[in-house]
Amino acid sequence: MLLYGATVDVDTGTTFQTMDGFGAAMMTWTRPSEYSQAGFYDRIVNDLGATIARTAVWPTFEKGNDNNDPNSFTWDGYDKNSLGLAMTFLKRLQDRGMNQFLATVWTPPAWMKTNQSHNYGGTVRPDLRDEFAEYLAAVAISAKRDFGVELSHISPQNEPFFVQEYESAVTTDVQMRELVRATMRKFAAEGLDTQFVAPEEMAKDERYHWYADAIKNDPETANFPGVWGVHSATNPHWPQVNDAVAGTNRDLWMTESHGHAQTITGALAMAQDMFNAITQTNASAYLYWQWSDNGSGSNSLMIKGEPAIKYHVAKHFYRYVRPGAVRIDATSSESRLRTISFKHPQTGALTHVLFNPDGANANATINLSGSALPGSYKQYRTSGTENHVQLPNVAGGSQVKLTLPPNSIVTLYSGPDLAPVAATSGGSLPNKVEFSDGAVTNPLRIAAAQGDVATVNELIASGVNVNANAFGGYSALHAAAMSPYAGAVGVINALIDAGANVGAATSEGFTPLHIAAMNPWTRGPTTETSLAGDKIRALTAGGASVTAQDNQGRTALHWGAMMSKLASITEMTTDGVVVDALLDGGSAVNATDDDGFTPLAYAGRESNIAGAGELTSRGGVHGAGGPTGDTTPPTSDVVDVSPDPRTTAVESVDVTFSEPVSGVDLRDFILMRDGTTQSLTGATLAQVNATTWRVGNLAAATGAAGEFMLKL
Questions:
Q1: Alpha-helix runs per DSSP H in 526-668
Q2: pLDDT tens by residue, 220-249
Q3: Nearest to 430, CA basis, from 81, 90, 145
Q4: Facing residues of 7 across strands?
Q5: Non-local CB neighbours of 477 within 8 Å, separated by 6+ positions
Q6: The whole model's pTM is what?
């Protein structure tokens, strides 16, 4: 018989993170039959021992803007039934004692996205971030008011780096930071305690660093209430994730992992993933993708509601590592034997999870240091032939010995058993609220969005109306302009050749050229330059006007400057190709919109570094009418108040610039008291002269005692 020995040293006095719990997610796109069974929820909470559940925010909750004021809810504009499926599911878990619920956005409603579609990526429009924040606040309010569910956490975006053909949205690091900022402010204004999980990006390469750095290096968003969120990946880069969040004094949740086969080998690979996330990044929570599905189970713990081998292996963590448990130091002398230990401060219990993914038996000797060591442990084991069976108790003390069979996992636990919570809630769940995909609602627009040149040509040959539109005037040419696929240029040319109107505008004034500039994310390059630039050039070659303005006076160049184009998928650097293509097409570099902003002003606000460089090199200036070639940006000074310190409120603060500027907005300012952002609702902004602006009506906001900072 093959056999190896291992010594495990456990130091109960050396502690790491405090655990928040374990869980999984539910499907919102379908209703498996097990979701109707009370026993299914009993199994999740009372048997598996899960303590966190995740779900999706269904985008039909706000099919169209409730009103034009993000500071005021018009509740008739929200459909609570769209939350019914998910919230009823969560309420049944809440009935059984679970109280940690994460609602994640896969896609915002189509009307607030740059591509006007729930699918194919697209980004929350920068001018609608406050509306997005209002949307999430309404979700949290409706969950509690209409379903009795307290959402503990909400996430602004699932996996923000992936353009997908299903419900998805994308953001750069800066765009993610600004979504967090807007939502923080709205939740604070509404008095919501729901916390945030961000950025829910994959543990891949250096990408996690990009998002975390943008959030943590900003004085306001660095204080976001909540936890870091990360997803596992093929060969996840846990050390890089740990480095990204180190020193932020904020927990890290691993909120999605999947892809492990429903075999003992696959289940132990899942256990290894848990082990790595918890030990290499100090993750305080681990969530699998699905509780249950009807397929092979590679993405779920159960199959058709019944426990499978991954369920039994997960139970070794989920049931015996309770919220509040603290990870303690545990080191194995043998790499083939993985071991992780926890202590429970409230009960004094210890939990040791050991797993042996090797083909030989493992004789393990656990040496423990510390006081109040358990006298004995309950022992549970799962292997290729055992599904979480309870074995005879093991003697405790300063040394514990046990044998692990090949391909097995064992948990030793000295605490009280989990007390089941009696609940009867069950029965049929509400129906999913179906939705059409915004503008992409007929075969031609769908094929155009997918860059499917062959299908587009077939439909054109069949006599379809290439200018048929929906969703406020959105045509097939608009769909091709937003397409992230390599075939988009061919579709644009085919549609123009067939008589598509290149100047067609939506109800908001967006032409196909606007839409192309608003959607620079791609899934593949063309053979010559980048797809994002090629779409622009194809449209301008076909007669698209670069001077056309949307309803806010913005040209396509304003949007191209605003929506950063990434240079690659391996580094968060911007590419000026969209701006370059628009300028080559004759766009006015210093055009101002209705708010007085130039493209360069937008590029600066959105940290589009390459776009700003391209604009500057070709005559862009801060403000309309500036001299060509002025590449020196203005400086600013927030004028000191007097007296300082003081015992009275401040009515106004002046900001002076080194040269005349335009486009200054109250949204550009942050007021903080003792490090906490204060609302500027009611404050005013006025231009005193060409170089001085005054933030006024501040008495109410600065009347409380504290240390204040006004930041531009």
A1: 531-541, 556-562, 577-584, 599-605, 609-617
A2: 999 999 999 999 988 999 999 999 999 999
A3: 81
A4: 365
A5: 448, 466, 492, 495, 496, 500, 501, 502, 504, 512
A6: 0.89
